[in-house]
Amino acid sequence: MRNSIWLLFFFSFFLLTSCDSNGLFDQYQSIQNSWGKDSVIEFKVQPPDTLNAYNLFVNLRNNNEYRYSNLYLIVELNFPHGKTIKDTLLYKMAKPNGEFLGTGYSSIKENKLWYKENFTFNESGEYTVNIQHAMRESGKVNGVKELKGITDVGFRVEKLQNTK
């Protein structure tokens, strides 16, 4: 009986803490072995409306095979009616001592990286988000062909936090 109560308590706690009322879209795609230079991760997003503003994030999971202190990404946002926004982004992935940033208690760290703040999906229809890495070795012209250590790439759309 006592074990049943603890099991019920644990299950209830997990259910309550895993609920996320701000996340409207949150998907990941796994990377097998390494992320190829020409490999594009694609997400199809149906925005909830065309009036309200949202925060957009790129989510990443990395493990100890990741050899760099930063990460360059090219993120392309394709609107339903043909407009495209393409950004080259730089994210810090580790502290100067080499310790990875992000959350997680194991060797896998999760990073929630800002992409666009206060963004309005002002066209109705499906948006496409394409993400690829743009990593280069210091002093080299050609990009890293196979980026090891990134295990998952995700995209997230959140409601704005109520500041009142």
Structure summary:
Pfam families: GldH_lipo. Helix content is 10%, strand content 46%.
Write the layout of secondary structure elements.
Blueprint: H1 2-18, E1 23-30, E2 34-36, E3 41-45, E4 53-62, E5 70-78, E6 84-92, E7 109-120, E8 127-133, E9 146-148, E10 150-159
Antiparallel strand pairs: 1-10, 2-9, 3-8, 4-7, 4-10, 5-6, 5-8
Structure description:
The chain has 164 residues and is mainly β. It has a single domain, classed as Jelly Rolls (Sandwich). The protein is 10% helix and 46% strand. The protein contains one helix and ten strands. The strands form three sheets. Strands 1-10-4-7 form a four-stranded antiparallel β-sheet, with no helix packed on it. It has a four-stranded antiparallel β-sheet with strand order 3-8-5-6, with no helix packed on it. It has a two-stranded antiparallel sheet with strand order 2-9. The protein is globular and about 45 Å long. It starts with a helix and ends in a 5-residue tail after the last strand. Mean pLDDT is 87; it is low at 5-19.
